[in-house]
TrEMBL record:
UniProt domain Alpha-D-phosphohexomutase alpha/beta/alpha: residue ranges: 60-100, 108-177
Record GO terms (molecular function): metal ion binding; phosphoacetylglucosamine mutase activity
Pathway: Nucleotide-sugar biosynthesis; UDP-N-acetyl-alpha-D-glucosamine biosynthesis; N-acetyl-alpha-D-glucosamine 1-phosphate from alpha-D-glucosamine 6-phosphate (route I): step 2/2
Active site: 67
Similarity remark: Belongs to the phosphohexose mutase family.
Protein name as it appears in the record: Phosphoacetylglucosamine mutase
Organism: Actinomortierella ambigua
Residues that bind Mg(2+): 67, 281, 283, 285
BP-aspect Gene Ontology terms: carbohydrate metabolic process; cell wall organization; UDP-N-acetylglucosamine biosynthetic process
Phosphoacetylglucosamine mutase AMG1 domain boundaries: 205-288, 302-440
Amino acid sequence: MATINVNNLNVLSDLHPKPVRTFSYGTAGFRMKAELLDSVIFRAGIAASLRSKKLGGKVIGAMITASHNPAEDNGVKLVDPMGEMMEGSWEALATQLANAESNEKLLEVIQRIVSAQGIDLATPARVAFARDTRPSGESLVKALNDGLKVLGAKGTDYGIMTTPQLHYITRCLNTEGTPEAYGEPTAEGYYKKLADAFKILIEGKATPAPLTLDCANGVGAPKFLEFLPYLSDTLPVKLINDDINDASKLNLNAGADHVKSHQKAPVGLKLAPLERYASFDGDADRLVYYYADEDGTFHLLDGDKIASLAAMYIVDLVKSAGVEGISVGVVQTAYANGASTKYLTETLNVPVKFACTGVKHLHHEALKYDVGVYFEANGHGTVLFSPSALKTIFSHEGSNPAQASAIRSLRALTEVINQTVGDAFSDLLLVEAILIQRQWTARVWDQAYTDLPNRLVKIYVQDRTIFDTTDAERKLVSPAGLQAQIDAIVKKFRDGRAFVRPSGTEDCTRLYAEAATRGECDELTYRIAGLVFDQAGGAGQRPQEFL
Ligand code: G16
């Protein structure tokens, strides 16, 4: 029976001392100021090794990124073998490893996990990892590598990649040579898979007008440039905010999170009427679209609009293909605009389920449908096809040319969509393919339903851990009494809805509000933001009016 080399552990752990601080695995992994992360990433390497051993040597992914956060932050997301976010129960184990106060305690936690999980330490462990463009990534990779050495795991460094590329590669490595083989485990394999499927989806259609793509000055920029040749001029795209050499620009007044939160164009972009624009976030797992109408009014096409477009298209395609018994459902969070839920359930007649914030929660709900469309309003999401749906789609040929063509499109759809996790490249191709097939502009897409005016804002407080929620994060249970005060304000606004929850990725709380008109929504937002700031230890400047 293999044992832990304690001397090796001590030597390596001494290189990555733990600061006096408590860490927790948040909405998407550990995430904070990069200077605090060295020991956390080292221990995440141990967590990934243990998880791999537990799963019989399957490859676990580790992505070093802080996604939409500012440049000085960083983090790590751990990826399970099929490319999905690591199982919830292991987040607690990773947290215990991160918080062990000394080498002795760290050894104790490892031993406890080994025994509780029935792990055979002799099982080999494999970990695939990559990082985004943040300068801190390089030294954090060293910490991760040291973590892998503790239990002798084999690490493979995929260099700089988008988060969804690493998720894709993890699944490919684990399914290689099996009937579920997902693709070639390389960036090239990823590009080819997506581009080939996209070309099938748009066969015979005219090339669209150019898309302007804001890359948040993040990893999406060099990677999309690398990807473009595979599309062979089928999709004209002009990149902006593509400077990865000046790290301070990452996500700064640019990218999907900025556009969604501020509901305006990113820095350096003047919107031409009725042209279409899109933004990635810093690690290219989120996507939002937008356009301005003739009078310059800004229109956002966020994750809810993408989910609605995808659901509409898939429902139509399933019907046209004449395939029986494929249920389509959508998963949203409390951030979903009320108008989108109404459109999905009442116009498209598709069931909608709600999950807590975090794609990991939505993903698991979406697995319950044959075709599960899941999107967060912030533009993070994808579509999952169940094994039985795939079997049906790939075993039917259709009894007439129209059905055969719909089946061909459905098959291509299963390939263009990254089924491991929300992926801005793949989602962009999905949206573009639908718009091209329908010959729709962004405005026509937008007309499916009208969003209730809404705001998503950050409120900075001294200690966000005093916030606790219930009811899928829609109600506060603490600070005591605050929810009742929020309810009293919301009641005064037509179609008013609002909730406050602590962020799991940033040191702030988030407030979402919607109401019948823009003016009422802004007033509602302002009043609740002020209330929370005053009653719950606001930090820095009191929230300004949102006009
Ligand atoms: C991550 C998660 C998303 C979540 C977002 C914000 O996104 O993957 O599911 O919506 O954080 O979470 P919170 O409101 O808890 O801060 P990303 O793109 O930053 O990895």
